[in-house]
Amino acid sequence: MSKVRTGRRKYYDIFSHFYDLLIKVHSRNYGEETRRFLVDSSLLENTIKPKILDVCCGTGSVILSFARRFPDSVAVGYDFSHGMLLKAYEKDLSHRLILIEGDAATLPFENEVFDVVCCSHALYELKGQVRKKALLEMRRVVKSHGLVLIMEHEVPRNQFIKILFYIRMLMMGPKDSREFLKQGISSFREIFTNVTLSHTKSGKSKLVICQK
Prior knowledge:
7 strands, alpha/beta, 7-stranded mixed beta sheet, globular, Rossmann fold
């Protein structure tokens, strides 16, 4: 792992202590809506013992939502931050999750293992080639009939929140942030055969649905 990524990992280890509170303040009443929309979009209702991977899972809110909806699933949370995974472990009171620490650009799984791979509000944190490698890895580990679901923020309408949003984007670096904000779904179409775009009812988040 590069020195930059190591520094980011230390940052998120510290940030893990405040992450859920910040997300609650930022998303207000829309967090549950967003997670429900993501889980609904997985189309796993008729899948027996589905295997689900949440890349950059953070404190585990999304993968826990999957595990609760599909009790017979194999639910894997994957993140490079030890601190984030500790918080996910604390929240997993029923011990439903498999939590693994590692880099999104080098997933330690065999080809075509998972029915669904998701990454929620985290892809923008990955820079340039690391982002592309992570998407290629997601494509590799999802089954041929499976889905890769990428959830990201829409640009906020509220002016104050919009300023905070752009500040966070600029933390990626000006070049990467401009690329991410402009790319739409074109970069996903370079990797996946079928790509569609959907939006939460509130318009707070967008979901890129990818198939091999």
